[in-house]
Each structure stands twice: as C-alpha cells, then as structure tokens.
Amino acid sequence: MDGAPTAQHELAIVPEGMIADLLTRDAAFAAVEDVFAAMAAGKAQNFSVVREAMPTEDALYGFKGGVAPGVLGLKAGGYWPHNLDKRGLINHQSTVFLFEPETGRVKAMVGGNLLTALRTAAASSVSIKHLARPDAKVLGMIGAGHQATFQMRAALETHDFQKVIGWNLHPEMLPNLAKVADELDIPFDAVDLPGMVEADAIITITSSFAPTLLADHVSPGTHIACMGTDTIGKQEVEPAFLARSTVFCDEVAQSTTLGEAQHAVAAGLLGESDITQIGAVINGTHPGRTSTDEITLFDGTGVGLQDLAVASSIVDTAVANGTATMVKI
Ligand code: NAD
C-alpha cells in the first residue's frame, strides 16, 4: 500500500468465440507488418520466452511478452495433448493479456487461439509481400495441418498466385489444402518434394524434426517462408540451403536459437550477422531481394509482439463497436 487512491477502471474482455468476427485478415496483416517494422527500428521489444513442462497432462505452458508503442502484455498458453481425446477441447490453448503501458493496469483479456493462427499466417504473408518476386505465380505448400490452411489463405489473399502445389508427409491430409484452393477457385496439385521446383514461393508449416525441403527441391528466385520451426530441435529445411539463401527473420535472437536457422548456426554455416529482421526491409533500411535469381528465406519463429499487436487491434475494434464485455475492476 502506498496510500494512493485505487480508482476503478474497465477491463475489456473479448472471448475466443468473437475473434473470427472481429479480426479481418487485412487487420492482422497490418498489425504484424507494423510491429515487425517497430521491432527493427528499436521501438519494440520482445521479452524472454518462458516455456515449461507441466507436472500433469503432459502439458507445455509458457508466456510470450513484449512492449511496443501503445502496447504492453503477454500471451499465456501452450499445448495440452489430451484435451481433444479427454474433453473434446482443442489441444492448443492461449489467452492474451494487455496492460496500459502508462500505468501497468490490466486493460484487456483476449482469446488467443484463432488469433495465433491468423498472426502466424500474417507473418508469412508479410514476407511474401516484401520478398517474393512480383511475378511469382506458383505457391508451394509443405504441410497440411491446422496452420497450413490459414497460411495458404493469407498468401493467396496477399499475392496474385495462379496455382498452388502441395506436399505433406501424411498425404491423407492434403485434401485440407485442396478444399481451400477450391473455395478460392484456384487450381491445386499434389506433388512430390522434387516437384516443388515449380514453386515461386514456398511455405513450410510442419512439426517436423528433420529436414524435408532440400536445396535440390527449390528453384533460383524462390522465396521460402519457414513457419513450422518454433522450438529447439524442430527442422524443416536442409541447413546448407540457408547458407545459400538470403535469410530474414522476425527476430534474430529467436531465429538463431529456436527457429529454422538454429541448425545452420549450430553447424557454423550461418552467423547472426547474416540474418536480417524483416522489419528492416519494411522500413527501407535493407533492400530485401536484389535480384530475380536470389533465393530469399524468412524464418518466422513467432514472437509475442505479433500476438499483442493483433490482440490490441481486436480490442480497439471490439471497444469501438460495443462488442467487448467491459468489466469495472
Ligand atoms: P498440425 O498438427 O495440425 O499439423 C502438423 C503438420 O506437420 C501436418 O502437415 C503433418 O503431416 C506434418 N508433420 C508431422 N510430423 C512430420 C514429420 N516428421 N515430417 C514432416 N511433416 C510432419 O500442426 P499445426 O498446428 O499446423 O502446426 C504446424 C507447426 O507450426 C508446428 O510445429 C507448430 O508448432 C508451428 N507453429 C509455428 C508458429 C509460428 O509462429 N512460427 C505458430 C503456430 C504454430
């Protein structure tokens, strides 16, 4: 107690079920693009990630937090592998908490599950906008799980691709991609990995722990967004391939430790100084792609500020249109 008055204020609650109606793909894209730019300009900072194994349910739980102009908060959540089987709930569960940067008072509580998929898809789309060749026609998808459909939709809405090709370790999941292609009225072909040479931009979004995409599977001039590797040990791409690409990322510290670049860095094939934050390209302090033959690679590890920026945009919309539940506290 410091004797100061404890004035009441309002907490905005935006539950999971409302996110789909409140967050457009465009708003997610703009929030993520802006926060990547702020990070590269030194105006926004992600805090160290906490991720712990829980004593029950084989669960993993953690926090990703950060601060940016007008935004302070954290996403708390993780993975409960038995949720679906035991309780009919989805296994990934998360919630975003926002605080007033000026006072530290809690400001909002926002469902974080759909938000995570949309902000992750926005990150690869931002990389496609800034790094893919303007004449890129064929989108390659590696992965066909939950995130893959969001990734594919966002990419097709960002760039005028004319065809999608897809590969997945478990081919029975490929209809997930074909369904999105059908909805968006774009041709889709299943291919083998060498068939990826046809792609002008590739998104990898698997939970693989060994490389599947090899250098021989990629043509000169391709842009690759590696989105699946967000943990120590995961891997989607041959490390030597990163050494031959121009490598960009959301945040260098995460890219080198838990992102796709972790393996090339550990093997001494790539150094921290070889990796550029994509925000530098957005801000115009790095030229990005400089030739049509260059292979660009975006290591999208997933930073807390993506969640906070998108959650903040959702809260602004929900408060403005009166759909947030406001609680006096
Ligand atoms: P999911 O379980 O729905 O799908 C997993 C995908 O990986 C499927 O396509 C499956 O066939 C494939 N797969 C599984 N084992 C494989 C292996 N050994 N080799 C190659 N492919 C394999 O998972 P999801 O929710 O779509 O998530 C996919 C990945 O994206 C996960 O690793 C997840 O942690 C990661 N992710 C990253 C971010 C980020 O910000 N970068 C955000 C969310 C999720």
Explain the overall architecture:
Strands 1, 2, 3, 4, 5, 6, 7 and 18 form an 8-stranded mixed beta sheet that branches. An 8-stranded parallel beta sheet has the order 10-9-8-11-13-17-15-16. With 329 residues, the chain is an alpha/beta fold. A hairpin with a 6-residue loop joins strand 6 and strand 7. It has helices at residues 16-22, 25-40, 83-87, 113-131, 146-158, 175-183, 239-243, 252-257, 261-266, 278-283, 304-320; strands at 10-14, 45-46, 50-53, 60-68, 71-79, 92-99, 106-111, 138-142, 163-167, 188-190, 201-204, 209-213, 223-226, 235-237, 246-249, 275-277, 296-299, 325-328. Helix 2 packs across helix 11 (304-320). It is globular and about 65 Å long. The protein starts with 9 loop residues before the first strand and ends with a strand. The structure holds nicotinamide-adenine-dinucleotide (NAD). The site of nicotinamide-adenine-dinucleotide (NAD) has 24 residues, from helix 4 and helix 5.
- Continuous helix count: 11
Are any ligands bound, and if so which? nicotinamide-adenine-dinucleotide
The largest sheet, given as strand count, sense and whether it forms a barrel, is: 8 strands, mixed
Q: What overall geometry do the principal axes of the alpha carbons give?
A: globular
